[in-house]
Amino acid sequence: MPASLLVELRTEELPPKSLKRLSEALAQSVFEGLTGLGFLAAESAARPFATPRRLAVLITRVLDKQPDRMTERKGPSVSAGLDAGGQPTQALAGFARSCGVEVAKLARAQGDKGEHFVYRFKHKGEPLKNHLAGVVEAALKKLPVAKLMRWGAGEAQFVRPVHGVILLHGAKVVPGAVLGLKSGSKTLGHRFMSRGPIVIAHADKYADILRKSGKVVASFEERRAAIAKQLRQSAVRQRAHVFPPHDWTGAGKTGDAEMAERVLTAGPILGANEELLDEVTALVEWPAVYAGEFEREFLDVPAQCIGLTMQKNQRYFALMSEHAELLPNYLLVSNLETRNPANIVRGNARVLRARLADAKFFFEQDRKTKLADRTPHLANVVYHNKLGSQLERVQRIQKLAVQIGQRLGADERLVERAAYLCKADLLTDMVGEFPELQGLMGYYYALHDGEPDAVAKAIARHYQPRHAGDTLPNAPIDQALALADRLDTLVGIYGIGLQPTGDKDPFGLRRAALGVARILVERGLALDAMELLQFARGQFPDGVVAEGVAQDLYGFILDRLRPYLRERGFKPDEIEAVLAVYQGEQGDRLFSTVIPRLTAIQAFRRLPEWKALSEANKRIRNILRQARQNGIEPASDANPDLYTETAEKALGDAVLHMQQEVPVLCGQKGQYAEGLRRLADLASSLDLFFRDVMVMVDDQAIRGNRLALLNQIRHLFLWIADVSELQG
């Protein structure tokens, strides 16, 4: 009879950051294993459970015995199994013996390669106990575990020692052994709030029994929701935010610029609280949220430092006021519920006070040495053994940033200064403790040193975007430094042969390439990416990086651009139509115009003529390609005096008119959609031309002139995109 099946592994403390993933993978693998063996019904479902000391899965409607099934074994073909007299051959007789039956018991079946002999027999279903332990063992081997460990005197291996196994079908224990442990129906509850073994009377009651008798919330999702609810309730009582709000109610009470700056600081801190929620959920079985506080003197340290100290070192949740200011309060999630949590709160406060004192000490000590005095010491820090020191890298970034800044109209003096200081904070104690703060601490220390505000901001913002969806640098000086930093990384690391492979990208080159693309695209910077790559390559000594690295990286950046554009809602053929243009002559405007061009293509596709024009462009492209393959080049320009056909003259007149309009609309005004709309007027003329005019005639002058006319049409469309790439 179908019944729910419970599988539980009781372990020592599991890695918190991978707990959820492990439980989901275990549930899926056990479910798939039982499905393959025929033990599950169509409506069966799996529910994973995970706590710091257990992984479990509950699967509904599991059969205690496989259904009987007919099995068919294929034998030789009829032509190979029977001789000319219709008697069994040795091949057929041998097949029958291997099946343990007479030849007469074999049947015939029609297959893809003709008729053949088969042996059909009923395979009797086996009980669940014969397979369950093996299914669980196989599932454990498939778990995404980087390192396994052994324990005791046995040979069993798992991510952490396993001390108990439950295999329970309904109310019955399924006999078997997993990792050398015999199955049973007993587990343990909370380490401190529960006493002795707990018997799971029925698989369906697993979560309820653990909750009531063991003080354990077995479901990861339920536990996470309970923690989030308690955190929000406690934050509300303190008139604070623990997670990013939809809006900040204090925004209208202070200056907009000042508030916006604080929100930029508060957002990532509260966002880190959301990320911390999963980790804390994996650390507790019976969560209880308590509020703590620290001395206000520590608020002199930048909020990001305090937030990281609490979140990373202590797993505490930082709190922000309605005005996006860090509060001297925090929330902690304990694994112990008590009516009087004073001792818990005091103990945690004592530990946090020591951590914050360290942060304050680092901050004060770091400010005693100016960033400008630290930069020369970067000569003692190796960037890469093939690429020199961090100081050499800073010098390369300086030159490249100045070149970019000149093109963007940034103050050259400020760009050069920001580039000189941008990596100095790598030598500070605070960044040594929290590498995530590089750039940000440079901002605070630059302000303390009396550097211009624009220089300090550029130091912080040149790391943007740090991740997908992150804020982009906005000021020209910030953009110049951000691009220079990434381009130097790309050219240097890629150029010495350390390209990403598969899912491995230890130097973050894909992220750097996408960052370059996003800055150029979203900020509309009309910079020639190839030119900048070549300039960056020129900053390295001869022979250090590959000669063709600039060309390779240009393609690498385009490869990152494609999925980014697909995520923004553009179709693959639209993207290829636009990018095809930039294999040619307009590379300096690739990234700054890619979105307007794609938007124009989307509008073009709503016109009734788009398919006809796309097909006509395919035809033009093929005619020109075949002509060149045969050594025939079009004339430099179409000569109206050589037009001989009416359709040819009409198309020539239309093209001449377009040549006056399209370059102005697209090249000067950036009105790509309007350019394509005007070009759509060529549809009827092109249709008549291809119907009435032969292009590849014997007369060399006329043939070259007609090829020139088609070439002009193709180049008119290439002001926007190669519409021949569009698929119907």
TrEMBL record:
Keyword NADP assigned to the entry: answer is no
The record's annotation in InterPro entries points to: DALR_anticod-bd, Gly-tRNA-synth_bsu, Gly-tRNA-synth_heterodimer
Which part of the chain is the DALR anticodon binding domain?
619-726
* Gene Ontology annotations of biological process type: arginyl-tRNA aminoacylation; glycyl-tRNA aminoacylation
Localization per Swiss-Prot or TrEMBL: Cytoplasm
* Superkingdom as given in the UniProt entry: Bacteria
Q: What is its main location?
A: cytoplasm
Q: Which family does it belong to?
A: Belongs to the class-II aminoacyl-tRNA synthetase family.
Q: What is this protein called?
A: Glycine--tRNA ligase beta subunit
Q: Which organism is it from?
A: Candidatus Muproteobacteria bacterium RBG_16_65_31
Instruction: State the encoding gene.
Output: glyS
